[in-house]
Amino acid sequence: MNSKILFTTTAMxxxxxxxxxxxxxxxxxxxxxxPTDSTAVDEYFGHKVTDLxxxxxxxxxxxxxxxxxxxxxxxxxxxxxxxxxxxxRRRLSALADYRKTGLPWREKNGKYYYFANDGLQxxxxxxxxxxxxxxxxxxxxxxxxxxxxxxxxxxxFFDPTARYMAYTVNRNGSDWSxxxxxxxxxxxxxxxxxxxxxFTNVAWHGDGFYYSAYERPAEGxxxxxxxEYQRIYFHRLGTPQSADAIVYxxxxxxxxFHTALVDDDQTVLMLYIAGNGxxxxxxxxxxxxxxxxxxxxxxxQDESVSIFDVEGDTLYIETSWGAPRTRIMTADIRKPQRxxxxxxxxxxxxxxxxxxxxxxxxxxxxxxxDAVNHAYIYRRDGTQVREIELPxxxxxxxxxxxxxxxxxxxxxxxxxxxxxxxxxxxxxxSTELSxxxxxxxxxxxxxxxxxxxxxxxxxxxxxxxxxxxxIELNGKNPTLLYGYGGFNVSLxxxxxxxxxxxxxxxxxxxxxxxxxxxxxxxEWHRAGMQMNKLNVFNDFIAAAEWLIANGYTSPxxxxxxxxxxGGLLVGATVNMRPDLFSVAIPQVxxxxxxxxxxxxxGWNWAPDYGTSADSPEMAEYLLKYSPLHNISxxxxxxxxxxxxxxxxxxxxxxxxxxxxxxxxxxxxxxxAPKLIRIDSDAGHxxxxxxxxxxxxxxxxxxxxxxxxxxxxxx
Length: 714
Hints:
The protein is an alpha+beta fold. The chain has ten helices and 39 strands. The chain has an eight-stranded mixed beta sheet with strand order 32-33-35-34-36-37-38-39, with helices on both faces. Strands 3, 4, 5, 6 and 7 form a five-stranded antiparallel beta sheet that branches. It has a four-stranded antiparallel beta sheet with strand order 8-9-10-11, with no helix packed on it. Strand 20 and strand 21 (314-319) form a beta hairpin. The radius of gyration is 25 Å and the shape is globular. The model is unreliable at 1-23 (pLDDT under 50).
């Protein structure tokens, strides 16, 4: 942990506190009129709730399209009038313009593969090379798949001999995937083409592969209708998709997810089933015995269980069963039921977050302690060899396999981009292979500390604080507080070049590890689920209060941001404590908690949130914090708010943000702007082209800077 130096003045930080409001944009005097329907009333266990902006759920209706166009015109007019918006865009572009090299790995053909981006390419490129020290050659460049970079490469899957590589692509930010197959020997694309796959794996077996897909959706409803009946199919190379056989379906449970995996040795077909709990069920087939039946290893979805290695008849399992922070167990493929499992590595102080083979006799296990990664080498008998010494406070990812002693890992922190290392497992020494160079930004000028603060119920919450060294705790520092708090997701120290413009202009960046996440295992997750969800919002509010009480900032200088479940977090906390913040950025947020489960994949969030159909108590609880339903209309001043969403977001459909923004604009919440930025040909965020991402971040940071009264110096 870095100590704090408290003698640098604000002027030394390159921060100009010039009042921008005298010459910049004003909040719109009038917002576009949204289509409404006063007869749209839902009844929840006798309680009637009017859904005035229901027409905005129809994202293809003429009235909705006209409203979107009008809203974007208002927002663009506001943002265009910010005098330094173009300067912010140029600086973000310069900060992002560095070569980004991904973690290399070795395939069965002896070749090495990795992703890289020259700097500002819309999509990263897949490279192949013959040795780790050789120059790479382009294997697949997704930038050639569209004119504007809106076709993204999803995942890649090599067959067991590395003769073929299947890959998925996503168009315009949608979660819908298409599968293609590349012949690595000839370099030609096969005619095989799979459509309407979603959240799919490609599991090679014999002359084909297993994948997950839905029926073709109704025309015009591809990005809004609920997805039901995900099936596992087997595709044989050289045949049309129409000939693919259904391997598994569950007509009694239309909302379950099904994912197929096959181990490297083609021993076991694994079927993971999720969608109705915090974990997953698991069935297996012994592929060595033709016609073998499905055998249930884990029948419930109460706990997580996954097979990460298969050796002969032994299955190596990572599971939270009996261990909220997860442990390692083994099972025999001939009697794989839970009552026969044997513990190999007991639950540790940290949370097990990564497993991988190091060689034929050793594993690498990654643990998370207080939201920071630690990695260890273990023998296959469950004994620990040593800890891998990582460079500092950050996040690591490893690449290794059974067939070679080579180990590679990447490491990143809040101020240092991902650096690639090779690791000698015998000596314990790491060697740097590649380290990016940033334009005019020196990570050594900044520091990250971790603090623990009490929430409303006394629970201690960890939080990372990053800023320029020598900052003065005078209560006037511009501070950006980020949070998520859900779905067992941890916020570890990680790098984002867009944040650097905030730091170099004197800003403090804060990441709070709220309950609902995975930082301390399943108990921490459950403490922020369903009827405990208010803990998450209280944790976030307590973070803001701690930062203010300890002299880092004040409400006049504090902004908050969060995306998806984090967008819900921002919307809910603004309603609860609008006095704490000056700027709020809810990104692609879940804003209608009463109806979220009715759209696309929203039903899958029910284990975390509960639904309005569950019980009177659950419906009342959701209604109490739902951002859409709790906007003040009594003149209470709200912070400046920029809502962001996209027209092809089929995970958190844009209707959430549409309805929330319309209600926000119609309410009496003071003079600060309440705007919505609606991107086109974009989705929830994954695979977004660099150009579009830079545009969005330029608008976002310009909005924050301007409404905090800051003119960036760079």
